[in-house]
């Protein structure tokens, strides 16, 4: 089957592609463009102005590894050897923000190579002698029209078990469904994910969570895939419903994702803009928040007690859960920013509710909350809303639910006002000056004193540098020398 490329997406319109193809011709290399470039072209995801950043080439004659080196030298790019034994390499053009992957064709022909690829929508082929069309040998064009994820064969998952997660990632990014036979293969081979490098798992998981992910999270939960990646979730299945939770703990944890995503459209633009920022390469704040939602109650099974009145308690599960997330972070080799972010959200996820536990909090209490949580307030509130939305037991009265919801909406909205004020406020003393005044070394005490000074300055209790110095000395003496 053939399909015509939309205007502005012909690979020959792309200067880098032309250069690579000319280099292939002069080197006697048979080169094809395959995979995501063509998929995204047919979906209208780029055009003559917005060029793609990732291009996959299949080499049907000669060495793809050696040809990639030649491309890197010719375009002054970075050569990245992926797997010489499997004839795969990458070229990164930093200035143009383009990544090109080169792989040798299995069996020496593009026809045989296509049959070893993962999904039909990624098995499309562009040939330089048919520049305006896409060749489809496996039904990928029809699956693309129907937004269907279909594996080319079950062997795809044997060859690379990461494709279990890739199926879900493509389903999330395209808003597609995984067809039943493929889904059965995915579930049958899920256990093999234990053999896959965690770095590769992280990429697929965080990328999937950066898209609307409610359906895929529930599906992965039903298949046991989340517990394969995070064994800490296994114990959550034994925690039952109670007066406040209408779902068992495992189901409650997954339900936070549709609850969070159901609020996305109502969020202020400044919250969405912040959530879209990356904590580290490929990991947005929103994706990390969703994972924190899934993991937020992993400390509950070990702290679960049912007292004589039949009440379920989970004292300090937030702190234990944060510690467990630290262990997960080490195992999964998360970057430090991702680790700190997820651990913090899990540790603080009860704080928005506690703020209103005794009624309306004072302005000082609210500002302390903002200052303590800092820039992560919006994402912590997203977790709180998601957690609350997934908690619908009979013990929670509707009037109390509506009141707390209203308070939280105001708490989030007022944070932007607080930020504007905070940006305009000039700190009267820095840490170095505090150390000089008190003759003490750097340490946690300095941060605590500066936080107390910030609060005093916010409430106009300190107006100038002289006031600030007196405040620091008095605070230090009263708190640490009583």
Supply Rg.
Answer: 27 Å
Helix run count: 24
How much β-strand is present in the residues? Answer: 5-15%
Tell me the structural class: alpha+beta
What's the end-to-end separation, in Å?
Answer: 83 Å
Mean pLDDT: 93
Helix content: 40-55%
The low-confidence parts are none
CATH classification class of the largest domain: Mainly Alpha
Please state the overall shape, judged from the principal axes of the Cα atoms: globular
Question: What is the annotated CATH architecture of the largest domain?
Answer: Orthogonal Bundle
Number of strands: 14
Could you outline the blueprint of secondary structure elements for this entry?
Blueprint: E1 2-4, H1 15-27, E2 31-34, H2 36-42, E3 54-59, H3 64-75, E4 78-83, E5 88-93, E6 98-104, H4 110-114, E7 125-127, E8 133-135, H5 140-145, E9 148-149, H6 155-159, H7 163-174, E10 177-178, H8 180-188, H9 198-209, H10 214-223, H11 225-229, H12 249-261, H13 269-276, E11 278-280, E12 283-284, H14 285-295, H15 300-303, E13 305-306, E14 312-313, H16 317-332, H17 336-348, H18 351-355, H19 363-373, H20 377-389, H21 398-424, H22 431-438, H23 444-458, H24 465-480
Parallel strand pairs: 3-6, 9-10
Antiparallel strand pairs: 1-8, 2-3, 2-7, 4-5, 5-6, 11-12, 13-14
Helix pairs in contact: 1-3, 7-8, 7-9, 9-14, 10-12, 12-14, 12-20, 14-17, 14-20, 16-17, 20-21, 23-24
